[in-house]
Design a protein that fits this description.
62% helix; elongated
Length: 68
């Protein structure tokens, strides 16, 4: 008899971080697309000053879009 997968045994509060960390979603599913959009939004919209990047300055794309 095989053990159930860990995803089947975790309670809901622990299941969400588990799925976010281990990225168990299949391609072409809504959760996969949402994760990709969230990563791209972070990369494009986070100002370099917030990350203390020594090679970049200003507010980045977000500042450009908002006119800062």
């Amino acid at each position: 008899m095989s053990r159930p997968r860990i995803e089947d045994r975790l309670p809901l509060p622990l299941l969400i971080p588990f799925r976010l960390m281990y990225w168990t979603y299949e391609r072409t599913t809504i959760p996969y697309d949402i994760m990709v959009i969230a990563i791209l939004a972070f990369v494009w919209l986070t100002p370099p000053d917030w990350l203390q990047d020594p090679t970049a300055h200003g507010m980045g794309l977000l500042g450009w879009l908002l006119g800062w």
